[in-house]
Amino acid sequence: MIPYSPPLADMRFALDELAGLPQIAQLPGCEQASADLVDAVLDEAAKLARDVLAPLNDVGDRERARLENGVVRTPSGFKDAYRRYAEGGWNALPFEPEHGGQGLPVALSTAILEMWNSANMGFALCPLLNIGAVELLQAHGSDEQKRIYLAKMVSGEWTGTMNLTEPQAGSDVGALRTRAVKDGDHYRISGQKIFITYGDHDFTANIVHMVLARLPDAPPGTKGISLFLVPKFLVKPDGSPGERNDIRTVSLEHKLGIHASPTCVLAFGDNGGAVGWLVGEENRGIECMFTMMNSARLNVGLQGVAIAERAYQQARDFARQRIQGKPIGAKTALPIVHHPDIRRMLLAMKAQIEAMRGLAYITAGMIDHARHEPQPETRAAAQRRVDLLIPVVKAWSTDLGVEIASLGVQVHGGMGYIEETGAVQHLRDARINPIYEGTNGIQANDLLGRKLMRDRGEAARDFIAEMRLIDRFLEMQRDAAFATIRTHLAPAIGALSSATDWVVDNWDVDPARTIAGAVPYLKLFGTVAGGWVLARAALAAQSRLDRRDGEPGFNAAKISTAAFYAEQSLPPRRRRAGPGGTRRRDDHGVRPRPALGEPVRPDHCDHMVQVANSETALALACELRSSRPDSASGFSLVLDEFVRARVDAQPGTNSGDIELGMGFGDIDLHDAGAFSSHGNRPFVIVGKASGSHDLADIIMQRDQFHGSCTLIAVNWRKPPRPPCLNSRPTGCETVTRKCST
Ligand SMILES: Cc1cc2nc3c(=O)[nH]c(=O)nc-3n(C[C@H](O)[C@H](O)[C@H](O)COP(=O)(O)OP(=O)(O)OC[C@H]3O[C@@H](n4cnc5c(N)ncnc54)[C@H](O)[C@@H]3O)c2cc1C
Which domain holds residue 616? Predict the structure, then answer.
């Protein structure tokens, strides 16, 4: 058995110092979350996670859920574990007291959900989906529905599921075909749903399916989708399960991971139609379902944290035991944890986990503010922050969760790749997280298309402004680690800020090209927010050290972890070439980079032409594009922001008419657009010499673009300051020529 030890000290630190649990406990309705109660709840949850759920994790992986004679059987021990979980009252933790919930803050229940998922993600998926179903019914259910179903779902006596996906309708939910036909006071549902997590199981006496379906006269797309509550067993007047509804488990999916979780194909209405009840209004089902999806998205993001934590603990323990080779300077062979590269991997895992955990708990704490703050404006502001952060937590944490689980395998060496050690189970289990609950590509689209553009970046800029404030507190610290954090964090926040401006400025011009950068933008967002989270943690730890509060080693580790993350994970600052910057290609064929402020020279690029003005530069770029043999695949023409602004200023043109319009900025901006949309196509950079070398620097740093970068440097007569994208430069010559394709 692979042990799991809930990281209570770190969880408590993140809850108190990052999510602000003590302040949340002052809000009306959250008063019972006293420090003592929080400690007691965390301790008890840790016992269930460590002693009951964690030992079943590899049992579930080996045995898998099975379909026997139309009935799903969960692996040995799971049903009993669920009974202990429900009887312990764990299911009711975050729900409203009027339906039998304990009304504890979401921030606290998030920490507890992390434990369940670290211990046994295959098990935890059942409560995770039930949480979403309960929140959905709390928000949108009729009084009757609440009376019949809510209390039992809150207690865990029954569980809820989410039924969206059909073979032809995955990300495109609007393509779903399951039909609902009115039949008296209810509806008859027929159709097939696939991939339904815990769509059937043997934990509880009833299962309450939340099903999206379409009425016969519904408009096409998502505007014609309605939501129905469809129980596995129809409920008798006394509240107990009665006749079986017309729902059949057709099969279970064979999956890469989470083997214990039954992923069901469900047939509704083989025999005349499953009985269902409308939730909310007809054709407004997708809005209701979003309540469930938002909850599930945060909690799936948390699964990324949870699996990463489990993988980290296992890798750390293995590295302390496995003896292999003598580290430099040692006289004897030592455990591999003494090798610098193993330490690097472990520290990278730990730092990223703490950053992800912090951001997830902060988001959960914001949900508490959005629900309980007395002032409506404060509630609305908190909700805006939640909306902004949820896709980031979901996608950034789950992508990192996979990377970290993979690092866990790497730390084990060959023993990680074979099944016996269990390290690879975490990687297999983690792999689903970037896919379900809206793929990470869909999350990134949501961040750009909805969350950023609905207020033209206002919520994001508020968040960025808040992150910037930390600099003045970092500056006051004496410890050198804080200087390191500052050095990396301030430009990283600047990078996020310019990328945000770029997205907002470009969306109206060319949304298709802009959204090509959605995933890198989201990654940048998460990475920078993670740096800010750890910087906050470091400041809080320093304050604890100053007050002699808590374990000094723990607090000191927080500071060094933040500095490590700042150096290793935050986007690299533009490097200066220094004295070596004028070197020709080195022995590895790496091209020298111009230092900032240094004019670009021919040896910096494959092809360099000095031209007198931007018109000639563009003309030359067009010529190159049509004449070079590799132009068959097309160039990516990258304009620096000065040239671009001038092209945009021309009536009837915009830089989109040219191959690609990009403002120059920093590496993340380019990550966000050009690189992802143009793959390995050759680059032509057009811009003034003193600015475009920044671009050259960026592009030449990227191995995959070596040999594919042509730089056309323009010598401006009067080098102006780079204008921002929206401002129009004056006093310079005008570009009159456009590239033709
Ligand atoms: C183990 C498991 C459990 C699941 N549990 C549930 C559940 O309980 N309930 C439920 O309803 N569903 C569930 N799902 C379904 C899951 O939510 C979908 O698989 C997911 O939404 C993706 O849909 P799809 O598989 O059809 O992929 P597709 O939609 O076909 O996507 C394929 C690829 O195209 C990309 N793509 C598609 N559209 C766009 C776009 N507009 N922009 C950019 N990229 C795009 C996707 O990002 C992805 O990379 C589960 C799936 C699995 C595997």
Answer: 597-741
> Per the residue annotation, which of 96, 166, 309, 437 is the catalytic one?
437
Residue 528 in any domain: the answer is: yes
From CA 510, how far away is CA 515, in angstroms rounded? 9
Last residue in a domain, options 574, 606, 623: 574
Residue 479 lies in a domain: yes
| Å from CA of 45 to ligand 1 middle | 32
In angstroms, what is the span from residue 263 Cα to ligand 1's centroid?
14
Global pTM value: 0.80
Active site residue 437: yes
Pair (615, 570) in one structural domain? no
**Joined tokens for residue 99:** 């339906």
**Tokens (6 digits) for 176:** 């779903």
pLDDT along the chain (741 residues), means of 10: 92 98 96 96 98 97 96 98 97 91 95 98 97 94 96 97 97 97 97 98 98 96 97 97 97 97 98 97 92 88 98 97 93 95 97 98 97 96 96 98 98 96 97 97 96 95 96 93 95 95 92 94 98 98 96 96 96 50 38 44 50 57 51 43 52 39 29 32 44 42 39 39 32 32 30
Specify whether 275 is located in the same domain as 173. Answer: yes
Residues within a 6 A CB radius of ligand 1: 162-165, 170-171, 195-197, 255, 263, 432, 435-439, 441-442, 445
Nearby residues of 358 by Cβ (< 8 Å), 6 or more positions away: 14, 18, 530, 533, 534, 536, 537
Residues 6+ apart with CB under 8 A from 147: none
